[in-house]
Amino acid sequence: MRDKSYIWISFIVLIFGIWVVPKVIKKFEKADLMYMGTAPHFELTNQDGKTITSDNYKGKVYVVEFFFANCPTICPIMNMNMVKLQNAFYGNMNFGIASISIDPVNDTPEALKRHATELGVKNPYWYMMTGDGKYIYDLAKKFNLYTGVNPEAAGGFEHSGLFALIDKEGNIRCRKDEHGNPILYYDGTDDEAVEWLKEDIKLLLDE
């Protein structure tokens, strides 16, 4: 009887090991997403009046956007898609969002606080940030994301609707197109691109 019990126990351990080990190994594999360099360092003020730097996102996967609260065109779509991402990863303390205003004169911490409340921001690491205008525009250039002042544009500003994806180690990451070329950023106004982003966030959270 003891011999049979030993055989069964060995069999169970073997099967368990075959099932678990690949999962453990996979957990520490790097996602098949391209590395596009280190994300620029930043230091800004959030909706609570606190100084936030890129170091606050260390160890987290996060998404960066440049927007402004009174934007009448693409920003409402971008922000609602950010809410979808927030809700998809709700409760995961390793996920964050960096929303950086390109209208710092009007987007004071108090104004951003109201905007965050209206949107339903619940993730404690979703910081809506403001600061010196020149600093913010220079930061956008470092990200290679277009921003600009244009009195003739709706709302007085222009910017891309793109989201940047940053991994836990502070690297900009992205997927490839069918030819193996990087799709550097994710269109924050496009439903399919947001679904891609959601998939890729999951991959980076599992790294």
Q: How do the helices and strands line up, and which of them pair or pack?
A:
Blueprint: H1 2-27, E1 34-38, E2 43-45, E3 51-53, E4 61-67, H2 75-88, E5 95-101, H3 109-119, E6 126-129, H4 133-142, E7 147-149, E8 157-159, E9 162-166, E10 171-174, E11 186-187, H5 191-205
Parallel strand pairs: 4-5, 5-6
Antiparallel strand pairs: 1-10, 2-3, 4-9, 7-8, 9-10, 9-11
Protein name: Redoxin family protein
Family: Belongs to the SCO1/2 family.
GO molecular function: metal ion binding
- C-alpha-based Rg, rounded: 21 Å
CATH hierarchy, class of the largest domain = Alpha Beta
Enter the CATH topology name of the largest domain: Glutaredoxin
State the secondary-structure class.
Answer: alpha+beta
* Global morphology: globular
Number of domains: 2
Q: What's the overall average pLDDT, rounded?
A: 89
Strand count, sense and barrel status of the largest sheet are: 7 strands, mixed
Q: What would your notes on this structure say?
A:
With 207 residues, the protein is an alpha+beta fold. The chain folds into two domains: 1-30; 31-205, Glutaredoxin (3-Layer(aba) Sandwich). Helix content is 37%, strand content 22%. It is globular, with a radius of gyration of 21 Å. Disulfide bonds join 71-75.
Features:
5 helices; Glutaredoxin; two-stranded antiparallel sheet; 207 residues; 11 strands; 22% strand; seven-stranded mixed sheet; alpha+beta; globular
Short description:
With 207 residues, the protein is an alpha+beta fold.
